[in-house]
């Protein structure tokens, strides 16, 4: 199955992606995680994107489309994949259509802006795996440590409140139009299903709702 998780920064895409990908045995393709790995490794790509990521802007469509097209040719994508944080502009979505990459489900996770600011201020991440926690809503077993490796958790560079507000503005302007893009595509009857769920519920309830819509 090919799935897109659509939602504002902090909506819970990465959190829910962990459950879906293990239930369906498909890889999570998070463009954010891929770019952060490039920044950490100090590659040419990392150097190109670091400033724009830290300021809360979007990396260019050309870079992102090339990165994703290359990633989905890898063998682990043969039975599908889950896009997390991609596409986030109309040109990115159109590039998939033009390349004949059909999507089965687009799932929008809706969360209010104020709730997002509070979630992101408490977020902690394990940089190497991309595993995500929240100091009170989804705490690790041992404070400040990753559940699997026991390594230190960190705060993301772009989770300061002013940067979060910029990311939200960018989301509303550039990514939210994808909701009507995919709703129109659903009406064309090619098999794509658009589903919108309320993301204000707790992590387990959202996980339950997602597992119901994905087994239909
Ligand atoms: P990216 O990494 O994609 O960040 P994002 O979309 O801003 O999303 P986040 O990772 O912040 O949020 P999330 O929805 O995954 O939430 P999470 O599960 O962590 O992108 C980063 C940057 O890379 C972009 O700004 C851009 O510069 C660049 N980039 C990436 N892709 C790009 C693209 N396609 N085009 C151009 N540029 C691109 O949850 C958040 C917190 O809330 C956690 O602490 C979690 O524990 C907690 N939480 C989750 N669910 C709940 C719940 N139900 N209740 C309470 N707390 C919850
Ligand atoms: Zn994420």
Automatic annotation (TrEMBL):
Residues the entry annotates as binding ATP? 10-15, 123, 132-133, 201
Q: Name one GO molecular function term.
A: ATP binding
Q: What are the subcellular locations of this protein? A: Cytoplasm
Q: Which Pfam families match?
A: ADK (PF00406), ADK_lid (PF05191)
Q: What biological process terms from GO does the record include?
A: AMP salvage
Q: Which residues are listed for AMP binding in this entry?
A: 31, 36, 57-59, 85-88, 92, 156, 167
| Recorded metabolic or biological pathway in which this protein acts | Purine metabolism; AMP biosynthesis via salvage pathway; AMP from ADP: step 1/1
List, alphabetically, the PROSITE patterns matched: ADENYLATE_KINASE
Q: Which reaction does it catalyse?
A: AMP + ATP = 2 ADP
What residues does the Adenylate kinase active site lid domain cover?
Answer: 123-158
Region spans: LID? 122-159
Q: Could you tell me which CDD domains the record lists for this protein?
A: ADK
Keyword Nucleotide-binding attributed: yes
Complexes and interactors: Monomer.
| Task performed by this protein | Catalyzes the reversible transfer of the terminal phosphate group between ATP and AMP. Plays an important role in cellular energy homeostasis and in adenine nucleotide metabolism.
What does the record's free text say on domains? Consists of three domains, a large central CORE domain and two small peripheral domains, NMPbind and LID, which undergo movements during catalysis. The LID domain closes over the site of phosphoryl transfer upon ATP binding. Assembling and dissambling the active center during each catalytic cycle provides an effective means to prevent ATP hydrolysis.
Q: Which HAMAP family match?
A: Adenylate_kinase_Adk
What is this protein's record name? Adenylate kinase
Tell me which species this is from. Answer: Pseudohongiella spirulinae
